[in-house]
Amino acid sequence: MAPVPVPLKDMKLLDVKLGQLPTWLAMRDFTPGGIGGALRRGYERYYNKYINVKKGGLGGISMVLAGYIVISYMWSYSHLKHDRRRKYH
């Protein structure tokens, strides 16, 4: 039996073909409520996968810490790149 085709609106991003990408993006909800809902679903998915587990480890917390380090470096990069070539003598 052939698998039942999934409508483009219900497809995940990884299942969308490159030619279908503009149509798929046009179907997304870019209102403030839609963006907030997407952020909430992402947080709940992360929390349930890495934080709210029976045998927890440092994996979930270390990912948050690594993300914070990368974001803070990106925010301060414009200041840091000017200090690179400065001579201290």
Automatic annotation (TrEMBL):
<keyword id="KW-0496">Mitochondrion</keyword>
<keyword id="KW-0812">Transmembrane</keyword>
<keyword id="KW-0007">Acetylation</keyword>
<comment type="similarity">
    <text>Belongs to the ATPase F chain family.</text>
</comment>
<dbReference type="GO" id="GO:0042776">
    <property type="term" value="P:proton motive force-driven mitochondrial ATP synthesis"/>
</dbReference>
<comment type="function">
    <text>Subunit f, of the mitochondrial membrane ATP synthase complex (F(1)F(0) ATP synthase or Complex V) that produces ATP from ADP in the presence of a proton gradient across the membrane which is generated by electron transport complexes of the respiratory chain. ATP synthase complex consist of a soluble F(1) head domain - the catalytic core - and a membrane F(1) domain - the membrane proton channel. These two domains are linked by a central stalk rotating inside the F(1) region and a stationary peripheral stalk.</text>
</comment>
<protein>
    <recommendedName>
        <fullName>ATP synthase F(0) complex subunit f, mitochondrial</fullName>
    </recommendedName>
</protein>
<keyword id="KW-0813">Transport</keyword>
<keyword id="KW-1133">Transmembrane helix</keyword>
<dbReference type="InterPro" id="IPR019344">
    <property type="entry name" value="F1F0-ATPsyn_F_prd"/>
</dbReference>
<comment type="subunit">
    <text>Component of the ATP synthase complex composed at least of ATP5F1A/subunit alpha, ATP5F1B/subunit beta, ATP5MC1/subunit c (homooctomer), MT-ATP6/subunit a, MT-ATP8/subunit 8, ATP5ME/subunit e, ATP5MF/subunit f, ATP5MG/subunit g, ATP5MK/subunit k, ATP5MJ/subunit j, ATP5F1C/subunit gamma, ATP5F1D/subunit delta, ATP5F1E/subunit epsilon, ATP5PF/subunit F6, ATP5PB/subunit b, ATP5PD/subunit d, ATP5PO/subunit OSCP.</text>
</comment>
<keyword id="KW-0375">Hydrogen ion transport</keyword>
<keyword id="KW-0406">Ion transport</keyword>
<dbReference type="GO" id="GO:0046933">
    <property type="term" value="F:proton-transporting ATP synthase activity, rotational mechanism"/>
</dbReference>
<keyword id="KW-0138">CF(0)</keyword>
<dbReference type="GO" id="GO:0005743">
    <property type="term" value="C:mitochondrial inner membrane"/>
</dbReference>
<keyword id="KW-0597">Phosphoprotein</keyword>
<dbReference type="GO" id="GO:0045259">
    <property type="term" value="C:proton-transporting ATP synthase complex"/>
</dbReference>
<keyword id="KW-0066">ATP synthesis</keyword>
<keyword id="KW-0999">Mitochondrion inner membrane</keyword>
<dbReference type="Pfam" id="PF10206">
    <property type="entry name" value="WRW"/>
</dbReference>
<keyword id="KW-0472">Membrane</keyword>
<feature type="transmembrane region" description="Helical">
    <location>
        <begin position="57"/>
        <end position="77"/>
    </location>
</feature>
